[in-house]
């Protein structure tokens, strides 16, 4: 059944749907699992990846469908909602379908973005568990990450206080860590701008080594990146030992293996390799694995979940973070390269609202009323805004995929506006479907499901944007020009110095290029909408993720620690003390 999302809030729809949510025993029967392949965890069991892949290794892969979007408004344009709707629509068509999405961070859940569970009748359940920690993967990543920092700072304190002979008595050798060249910081899973730049070790010599430090949001941790791209537990363990924590005074990298903390980090993360099993409100299975934020991280549901889903389902739907210029680009050139998996279809989500913004509409501000231009017909704004849509259709087509544009329908959209978008998308070589999944669930997503199934019948000539042998600066130039539409790249002195060093060092030749930039524009400047012209991409620094094997060029002034707004969501979240149920999540 479909609930009335104009009358009920998301958490209320979730509460109703969860009354008939499949039990673990029902999932075992429905998904054809062995009993020991489902790991009990309340209403959100985990799937034993190692056991399942061993049993299913010879089964052919299903169709691989990726969901991305046009450049969004600050409100988001419904990628997760569309992913849920597509699962429901394919389910209505009688298909064996499942999906994989990313676990939400506590930062945006308690800030302005909300839970990322979808919405209306295209919603993931159980919503409260999904929104508030799920089975603890992010918590395990935080503990493992911060344990590395504990190891680093304790080692620096001991090296400062003891001679080489005294260190040897403690079975330690001097690493000679440079306190001014520490790569890692601490992490917390909230938007805590007050922790971006801190001083630690204040006090006496027993209180640690005094130095500048920093916090990032937990899902920006290299450990989350490693979970996203690891192929199995062995790969995860190896990568954890290669994380660069700092450098010594001669410039040599200091790794977690050097600190002898990598094994303990893996112990904290041993259970994170198993995806969590959840479902839509229409009970299509959907795995939750890895984290969000394609602007500051890889922003992909995991390779592990996709490998498993392709064995389990005839159609497997996976979601990439933010818009196609960053989410799809990383899916295309990083995730698919590392996994060896070839996608069949990319669904490009668009809304009339976002197209109007790109066409010159007023600024959209979370928490404030939407300007009337977004609720009244305005064909000129829509047509102008379609430049962003057409640009990103072209980006996807460069990979060899013919995209399916999904118009995520709002009740304020007019027939004329929708016809205009469909005509322009189809003229650009894409299929286009209107979907009303938010309002009607699977019944509203049948046109989208049909378009995706039709697209899956086509052969895909999948190819990467650049070869792995291409030098770092040339890769960045290629991404900037071919994906973002920039005229070129300007390198800050620090970034250029690092780039030259990485290009000349054979250790970095096969590192992936993981761009860090705003999700609110094709450019580095979030206020530049549509398809900006006549600009160059500034790269101010390059982060090194030694375990993930990423080099991360940073464009603009983006921070790895977002800030909490003046009207955050936590002000409206509460608990019914008589029932224990959480209210107010959105």
Notable traits:
586 residues; alpha/beta; Rossmann fold; Domain 2, N(10)-formyltetrahydrofolate synthetase; Formyltetrahydrofolate synthetase, domain 3; 3 domains; ten-stranded mixed beta sheet; four-stranded mixed beta sheet; 25 strands; 35% helix; 17% strand
Kindly describe this structure.
The protein is α/β, with parallel strands linked by helices. It has three domains: 10-136 and 272-455, Rossmann fold (3-Layer(aba) Sandwich); 137-261, Domain 2, N(10)-formyltetrahydrofolate synthetase; 472-555, Formyltetrahydrofolate synthetase, domain 3. Helix content is 35%, strand content 17%. It has 20 helices and 25 strands. Strands 5-6-14-15-4-16-3-17-18-19 form a ten-stranded mixed beta sheet, sandwiched between helices. Strand 14 (276-280) and strand 15 (285-288) form a beta hairpin. The longest helix is centred in the N-terminal third of the chain and has 25 residues, at 137-161. The model has no long low-confidence stretch (mean pLDDT 95).
The fraction of residues assigned to DSSP E strands is 15-25%
**Number of domain modules:** 3
CATH class placement of the largest domain: Alpha Beta
And the CATH topology of the largest domain? Rossmann fold
Subunit organisation of the chains: single chain
Number of beta strands: 25
Q: Could you tell me the radius of gyration in angstroms?
A: 24 Å
The CATH homologous superfamily name of the largest domain equals P-loop containing nucleotide triphosphate hydrolases
How many angstroms separate the termini? 21 Å
Q: What is the overall pLDDT average?
A: 95
Percent helix: 25-40%
Q: Main sheet: which strands, in order across?
A: 5-6-14-15-4-16-3-17-18-19
Number of helices: 20
- Can you summarize the main beta sheet? 10 strands, mixed
Class per helix and strand makeup: alpha/beta
CATH architecture of the largest domain: 3-Layer(aba) Sandwich
